[in-house]
Amino acid sequence: MRSVAINSYSEPAKFQLVNLPVPSISSPTDVLIRVHAASINPGDLILASGMTRLMFPVEFPYKVGHDLSGTVVQVGAGVTEVVVGDDVYTNLPIAYAGSHLFFCLARSKSQEFIRL
């Protein structure tokens, strides 16, 4: 699966497409979403540039993107906010960044889901 990522702090011109495995549910609060639309917002650019690396260090390769909309395709055993088949919008936390994928993981207890 292809993803927009960086291997070091950089500007958007150095963003790359990399191959990554499809993520899988590993926690009872995980939500797997098939992504339909994603964006790169100013916060993504600031994180990628390294301007916030003292407060929010990232691990490389860092998957770019936090905002997305898509369809829930699988949920962990502890998820109650959404069900398989829900169309949702969410903003991924830094630890789960990577909305520019065909599938991405979100965490139900640490973020909001807006049903569409």
Characterization of the model:
The chain has one helix spanning 42-49, and strands spanning 2-6, 16-19, 30-39, 62-63, 67-75, 87-91, 103-107, 113-115. With 116 residues, it is mainly beta. The chain has one domain: Medium-chain alcohol dehydrogenases, catalytic domain (Quinone Oxidoreductase, Chain A, domain 1), CATH 3.90.180. A 5-stranded antiparallel sheet has the order 7-3-5-6-8, with no helix packed on it. It has a 3-stranded antiparallel sheet with strand order 2-1-4, with no helix packed on it. It is globular, with a radius of gyration of 14 Å. The two termini are 25 Å apart.
Structural class: mainly beta
**Alpha carbon gyration radius:** 14 Å
Flag low-confidence runs.
none
Per the CATH scheme, the topology name is Quinone Oxidoreductase, Chain A, domain 1
Number of helices: 1
What tags apply to this protein structure?
single chain; 8 strands; 7% helix; globular
